[in-house]
From TrEMBL, chain A:
This is Cleavage and polyadenylation specificity factor subunit 3-I. The gene is LOC104752770. Residues 256-377 form the Beta-Casp domain. Keywords: Hydrolase, mRNA processing, Nuclease, Nucleus. It is found in: Nucleus. InterPro entries: Beta_Casp (IPR022712), CPSF73-100_C (IPR021718), MBL (IPR050698), Metallo-B-lactamas (IPR001279), RibonucZ/Hydroxyglut_hydro (IPR036866), RMMBL (IPR011108). It comes from Camelina sativa.
Automatic annotation (TrEMBL), chain B:
It comes from Camelina sativa. Residues 17-226 form the Metallo-beta-lactamase domain. CDD domains: CPSF2-like_MBL-fold. This is Cleavage and polyadenylation specificity factor subunit 2. Gene3D superfamilies: Ribonuclease Z/Hydroxyacylglutathione hydrolase-like. The gene is LOC104736399. Belongs to the metallo-beta-lactamase superfamily. RNA-metabolizing metallo-beta-lactamase-like family. CPSF2/YSH1 subfamily. Keywords: mRNA processing, Nucleus, RNA-binding. Residues 243-366 form the Beta-Casp domain. Pfam families: Beta-Casp, CPSF100_C, Lactamase_B_6, RMMBL.
């Protein structure tokens, strides 16, 4: 039974190559911005990064291409941050697909995720059929989402992962995944610049094998942070000093908090401005303030140290504004309002009433989507159309000051140069920008050891990692370090992607598994003389030893060094042995023998002269059996010349020498198979050697 | 081949003294915990003082005095200079605990073992880790990975895992497997078979822990009973550890019942404590973070608890029954001691202890059974100097000032330059000329308060070997130093530097009262008088220690089943009891070293690494068993191109091996399995299982706590020759894998 674990149906060599193939497929955000979702598969483990929707589409069209994958095979889903284009299809994916893996995001992301999506469901004006999910789905999804802290290492089904600070927004993370020693970094949206409250994206301490990186900013370069902050505060200061009003249309979360911090600090430093009110008008932002006030630990040292004195997110000069009705427009003021695109709502209402006065100013603080009013006024048209359909002159000053928190080209290239990943996959970028970035990065890594890929949605990138499987031999087996040619036999235990080899009796020491021995005791009715059994057994088995039972003093026989046969009483004998396949077989044959004794009168005939003959007969029988078994395995088996067996499979021929077991064939696969098959057949038809009980 | 590991206790073995252990892993010396008691007994630190300079890293497990109290003193006086690792809450709350200790002590004695500056310096360079963060040690510790994991005893409390070459050394003291309101239970059980486990036997003899619900009920009933008859309730608590759980229980109960009795939380740092705790939600229990995620409801927005930072506020509070949680739990110092003395003689009042007091303290004395009727208490108070003493003091001061002025004028220019130029590397510990300070303290207790003011805005003129005297130039009013706000304005252009500015300043927030105490430069002295306090109030002790009880400790250790076990921190009987228990049931290598006795727990495990060749692996078929997969391999050693040993398939036929049955049979599970297959099955006497009419099956041999720990299972199946026998045997085989 030595080789019971090695089946005859052995797998062919090339199949193992599949195990080394790593596939990365963007299901969204491949050469586009929006609906981030990247699928990755390696060694039978499947991971999905992010689960966003495309803000420009609605309904199913906005989803990533989930059809490309089988959601039930995904082990882990990792969400980098709370933005709609990274997290909003999560309720759909969790509640409406067969996905049953585990989902992770950071604490802050989870807290804001719920608020943001609830708000998103409320404001998105789509028909009921187009609704991908409702509030209930969001609430249900909350129970399935698990949280992970920065740097905390989590292991799921052998997949190890942890996350680094990504900058960008509160709670944004970059995920590093380690599968069997191959490391993949997914940056999500990141920024390498520290701002007022967020840390810069960390540089991971290990270089990844693959870096899946965002390319939103392409080859652009950002203005220095101090310059743009100064521009920002200067515009505001001069406008309010002249009695004007400042409107800042902004998205509720992310940059808005940064701008509020800037304003609050500026006001604190300029006591002359203290009588000028600052409002932020976003119910969502107001709700999220509690989150910002709590997850201080995810922010930078500056905030953490300020927190030692007072919570910097408890603003001293800024007050919330619920609706335009609560707002008395009496003099200079600064209002930050949603939506950022000036499509409708409070920011638009204020814009309409302020746009014709040239004392007023409007600051557009970031990237604006094509087609919105905010994008239009950046080009400073003479006139604008108001919400009520009338046109009005655009006299207010319009300033575009980008506070984008995406890495620019300088940041991206230094980040990649520090990490030096051999494979770079660009995602989350507009196709043309991405190509330009790719070209420019090529010039940065001229040595040719770096592959840069820009897959489109559903286009797979395949890579091969020839990962070595390393095992640790421990315990008794390792007492002596073996030399080449020595044999090592033991139990191989695989847990996750770690292997250990140990002696079977130490299994319970080094692993949580345990071994067992099963002792069997069976009683058989037998009324004859015990001596008869002994005689019959000796006929069949190589070794039968007599002994006496220590307790009862009754005679006992030890058959084949395995099975003890005892005379229990006049009418019964008992068999006792410890389970294993050979002992079971020996015991079975003893049982059969005993039962037959009682049935038929034993014929005690001396058959000495037949020994030679029967051996010959046996030999013939064995050959027949071997032939039959080979036919059942290979089909076409013929007796060839000089006693060799000729085996034909799919046009390949192998010649088998029955005596030596040698096989000749041009096809190495067939040769190997025939050799092994023959070896096993031979060991099966041979009598059981005593040594097997070692 | 194994990693060499030595453990040397420095304090806290065979007794309940503070914890402090030296663990050396391949020559890299970890000091794990650095505790002190509430009496600040320097004799406890003798062992530490001998090794302090050889320490390479300090790991802190819990934010209380017993686990980190000696850190400032060791850094200042004993030459400990290694980097300190702790979780964020342990760092923050530990800092506040030390502030509270210092201020409480200062109030009643000329405490000079360490100063607030020393505390700041000690905590300034703590490297903060999150739970399960695998931190690779740099430099000398190359190859060692440390990671804190949830301990469940206090907020941020950690069990530490030190890993080198795949071998784990786990330090787990004061863990709690039970989930509480604000904390998750420990994850200790997720570590299986570490090379070494260092754990405490503190609760080994402590059993019959009451169920949480019942305990909470008794707790609240006792409190409300006393409140309703008009009594006051005092809970002596720690500064920032277990008190959080008590606050939550009270808060929750008060809102459910709509009680109007006020609750006061009185420590020198109570408001900062709660402010910080509010931002530590990541570290708390799942239910707390869940409630915040769904409703943004921060559990530590306490509506019924008033945070107080000085005793006067409590005295000014409206009269009537109230609950006061005050530090220190030992009643040796702090507000709790004052309040106890005031309230002890009213039988309506209740002093409710929530944990066992430290050995040799007033709290411990009061917890003895039967409780003492009278206790002798030395009450000390700091009073301003008056009359002749004041005049003498001022003369001395003037003399000193003249001397200082003389010296200062010589170095002033240099000083100023240094203090302005190096503001942003204030991380360097400030060196105060301790000798001068001591002299002053010797003659006039509080004279060195001036120094403290400087300590609060560390000028980092640390390079100067002298006391920085530029405070002479400062203007003073009744609030202290006159400050010019412009000095603190962070200019736009050096905002980044500004961040670092504040970065260096980890003083943390001190409450105004604290600050006023700091800034209080009025000369004062400590006066003491002995009182006999009649204890007529009720004394009750309940277990809110948040530690696993004896039974859980045993099953936890059995589950973890370390290869070697080191027991610390418990009285001799408990240590001995647990040692015997573990020797008999869990593992043969149990050590309980004495102080400064080094035990070598290097694992005698042999191991070597081999590569598994593709050829071999393609022939191996794994069988899945729980988390792991198993297979038998017969292989031959070869070499890879990179000269690494690799396992190749055997060239010849493998020699047969004894078959192994792998699996863990649970009789009860098997019974269910059999009945699901339609076999009539029932338990017979003696743990035997009667299957069908004739066949019985039983486990024989020693049964350990868990099948895994005590060797292979022995299963006996017997019966007469019949069909059933073979059927049941087949079912039994189906529970195992045959390799």
């Amino acid at each position: 039974m030595a080789s019971s674990s090695i089946s005859l149906k052995r797998r062919e060599q090339p199949t193992t190559r599949d195990g080394d193939q790593l596939i990365v497929t963007p299901l969204g955000a491949g050469s586009e911005v929006g609906r981030s979702c990247v699928y990755m598969s390696f060694r039978g483990k499947n991971i999905l990064f992010d689960c966003g929707i495309h803000p420009a589409y609605s309904g199913m069209a906005a989803l990533p291409y989930f059809d490309e994958i089988d959601p039930s095979t995904i082990d882990v889903l990792l969400i980098t941050h709370f933005h709609i284009d990274h997290a909003a299809s999560l309720p759909y994916f969790l509640e409406k697909t067969t996905f049953n893996g585990r989902v992770f995001m950071t604490h802050a992301t989870k807290a804001i995720y719920k608020l943001l999506l609830t708000d998103y469901v409320k404001v998105s004006k789509v028909s009921v059929e187009d609704m991908l999910f409702d509030e209930q789905d969001i609430n249900k999804s909350m129970d399935k989402i698990e949280v992970i802290d920065f740097h905390q290492t989590v292991e799921v089904n052998g997949i190890k992962f942890w996350c680094y600070t990504a900058g960008h927004v509160l709670g944004a993370a970059m995920f590093m995944v380690d599968i069997a020693g191959v490391r993949i970094l997914y940056t999500g949206d990141y920024s390498r610049e520290e701002d007022r409250h967020l840390r810069a994206a960390e540089l991971p301490q290990f270089s990844p094998d693959i870096c899946i990186i965002e390319s939103t900013s392409g080859v652009q370069l950002h203005q220095s942070r101090h310059i743009r902050e100064k521009r920002f505060t200067d515009v505001i200061h001069s406008t309010v000093a002249q009695g004007g009003r400042v409107l800042i249309p902004a998205f509720a979360l992310g940059r808005a908090q940064e701008l509020l911090l800037i304003l609050d600090e500026y006001w604190a430093n300029h006591p002359d401005l203290n009588n000028i009110p600052i409002y932020y008008a976003s119910p969502l932002a107001k709700k999220c303030m509690a989150v910002y006030q709590t997850y201080i630990l995810s922010m930078n040292d500056r905030i953490r140290n300020q927190f030692a004195n007072s919570n910097p997110f408890v603003f001293k000069h800024i007050s919330p504004l619920n609706s335009i009705d609560d707002f008395s427009d009496v003099g200079p003021c600064v209002v930050m309002a949603t939506p950022g695109g000036l499509q409708s709502g409070l920011s638009r209402q204020l814009f309409d009433s302020w746009c014709s006065d040239k004392k007023n100013a409007c600051i557009i603080p970031g990237y604006m989507v094509e087609g919105t009013l905010a994008k239009t006024i950046i080009n400073e048209p003479k006139e604008v159309t108001l919400m009520n359909g009338l046109t009005a002159p655009l006299n207010m000053q319009v300033h575009y000051i980008s506070f984008s928190a995406h890495a620019d080209y300088a940041q991206t290239s230094t980040f990649l140069k520090e990490l030096m990943p051999p494979n770079i996959i660009l995602v989350h970028g507009e196709a043309n920008e991405m190509m330009r970035l790719k070209q420019k990065l090529f010039t940065e890594f001229p040595d040719g050891n770096t592959r840069i890929m820009t897959p489109k949605n559903c286009e797979s990138v395949e890579m091969y990692f020839n990962s070595e499987k390393l095992a640790k031999t421990i315990g008794r087996l390792a007492e002596k370090t073996p030399d080449v040619g020595d044999s090592v036999s033991g139990i191989l235990v695989k847990k996750g992607f770690t292997y250990q080899i140990m002696a079977p009796d130490e299994l319970h020491v080094f692993s949580q598994l345990s071994t067992a021995t099963v002792t069997q005791r069976i009683t058989i009715p037998f009324a004859g003389a015990f001596g008869v059994i002994k005689h019959r057994l000796e006929k069949i088995f190589e070794s039968v030893e007599s002994s006496t039972d220590e307790e009862s003093g009754l005679p006992a026989l030890i058959v084949h060094e395995r099975v003890t046969v005892k005379q229990e009483s006049e009418k019964h004998i008992s068999l006792q042995w410890s389970s294993d396949p050979i002992s079971d077989m020996v015991s079975d044959s003893i049982v059969a023998l005993v039962l037959n004794i009682s049935r038929e009168v034993p014929k005690i005939v001396v058959e000495e002269e037949d020994v030679v003959k029967s051996e010959e007969e046996n030999g013939k029988k064995v050959e027949k059996v071997i032939y039959a078994l080979l036919v059942s395995l290979f089909g076409d088996v013929k007796l060839g010349e000089n006693g060799k067996l000729v085996i034909r499979v799919d046009g390949n021929v192998a010649q088998l020498d029955k005596e030596s077991g040698e096989v000749e064939s041009e096809h190495s696969g067939l040769k190997e198979r025939v050799r092994v098959a023959f070896e096993r057949i031979r060991s099966a038809v041979k009598p059981i050697p005593l040594s097997a009980s070692s | 081949m194994g990693t060499s590991v030595q453990v040397t206790p420095l304090c806290g073995v065979y007794n309940e003294n503070p914890l402090s252990y030296l663990v050396s892993v391949d020559g890299f010396n970890f000091l794990i915990d650095c505790g002190w008691n509430d009496l600040f007994d320097t004799s406890l630190l003798e062992a530490l003082s001998r090794v302090a300079s050889t320490i390479d890293a300090v790991l802190l497990s819990h934010p209380d005095t017993l686990h980190l109290g000696a850190l400032p003193y060791a850094m200042k006086q004993l030459g400990l200079s290694a980097p300190v690792y702790a979780t964020e809450p342990v760092h923050r709350l530990g800092l506040l605990t030390m502030y509270d200790q210092f201020l409480s002590r200062k109030q009643v004695s000329d405490f000079d073992l360490f100063t607030l500056d020393d505390i700041d310096n000690a905590f300034q360079n703590v490297i903060r880790l999150t739970y399960s963060q695998n931190y690779h040690l740099p430099g000398k510790g190359e190859g060692i990975v440390i990671a804190p994991h949830v301990a469940g005893h206090m907020l941020g409390g950690s069990i530490w895992r030190i890993t080198k070459d795949g071998e784990d050394v786990i330090y787990a003291v004061d863990y709690n497997h039970r989930k509480e309101r604000h904390l998750n239970g420990t994850v200790l059980q997720s570590f299986v078979r570490p090379a070494v486990l260092i754990t405490d036997a503190y609760h080994a003899l402590y059993t019959n822990q009451t169920a949480r619900q019942q305990r909470d009920k008794e707790f609240l009933d006792t409190i409300s009973k006393h409140l309703e008859v008009g009594g006051n309730v005092l809970l002596p608590v720690d500064t920032a550890g277990r008190v959080l759980e008590l606050l939550l229980i009270l808060e929750q109960h008060w809102s459910q019942r709509g009680f109007s009795f006020p609750i006061y939380f009185l420590t020198y740092v109570s408001s900062s404590t709660i402010d910080y705790v509010k931002s530590f939600l990541e570290w708390m229990s799942d239910s707390i973070s869940k409630s915040f995620e769904t409703s943004r409801d921060n559990a530590f927005l306490l509506r019924h608890v008033t945070l107080l930072i000085n005793k006067t506020d409590l005295d000014n509070a409206p009269p009537g029954p109230k609950v006061v949680l005050a530090s220190m739990g030992s009643l040796e110092a702090g507000f709790a001691r004052d309040i106890f003395v005031e309230w002890a003689n009213d039988p309506r009042n209740l002093v409710l202890f929530t944990e066992t007091g430290q050995f040799g303290t007033l709290a411990r004395m009061l917890q003895s059974a039967p409780p003492p009727k009278f206790v002798k208490v030395t009450m000390s108070k700091r009073v301003p100097l008056a009359g002749e003493e004041l005049i003498a003091y001022e003369e001395e001061q003037n003399r000193l000032k003249r001397e200082e002025a003389l010296r200062a004028s010589l170095v002033k220019e240099e000083e100023t330059k240094a203090s302005h130029g190096s503001d942003d590397n204030s991380s360097e510990p400030m060196v105060i000329d301790t000798k001068t300070t001591r002299d002053v303290v010797g003659s006039h207790g509080p004279a060195y308060k001036d120094i403290l003011i400087d300590g609060f805005v560390p000028p980092s003129s640390s390079v100067a070997p002298m006391f920085p005297f530029f405070d002479n130039a400062c203007e003073w009013d009744e609030f202290g130093e006159v400050i010019n706000p412009d000095d603190y304005v962070i200019k736009d252009e050096d905002m980044d530097r500004g961040a670092m500015h504040t970065g260096g300043d980890v003083d943390g927030r001190l409450d105004e009262a604290t600050a006023s105490l700091m800034l209080d430069t009025r000369p004062s002295k400590v006066i003491s008088n002995e009182l006999i306090v009649t204890v007529s109030c009720s004394l009750v002790k309940m277990d809110y220690e948040g530690r696993s009880d004896g039974r859980s400790i045993k099953s936890m250790i059995a589950h973890v089943s370390p290869l070697k076990l080191v027991l610390v921190h418990a009285i001799a009987e408990a240590t001995e009891h647990l040692k015997q228990h573990c020797l008999n049931n869990i593992c043969p290598h149990v050590y309980a070293p004495q102080i400064e006795e080094t035990v070598d727990v290097t694992s005698d495990l042999c191991a070597y690494k081999v590569q598994l060749s593709e050829k071999l692996m393609s022939n191996v078929i794994f069988k899945k068993l729980g988390d792991s997969e198993v297979a038998w391999v017969d292989s031959e050693v070869g070499k890879t191109e990179s000269d690494m040993r690799s396992l190749q398939p055997m060239a010849g036929a493998a020699s047969p091996h004894k078959p192994v049955l792998v699996g863990d049979l649970k009789i009860a599970d098997f019974k269910q399995f059999l009945s699901s297959k339609g076999v009539q099955v029932e338990f017979a006497g003696g743990g035997a299982l009667r299957c069908g009419e004739y066949v019985t099956l039983r486990k024989v041999g020693p049964t350990g706590q868990k099948g895994g720990a005590s060797g292979p299972q022995q299963i006996l199946i017997e019966g007469p020759l019949c069909e059933d026998y073979y059927k049941i045997r087949d079912y039994l085989y189906s529970q195992f894998y045959l390799l």
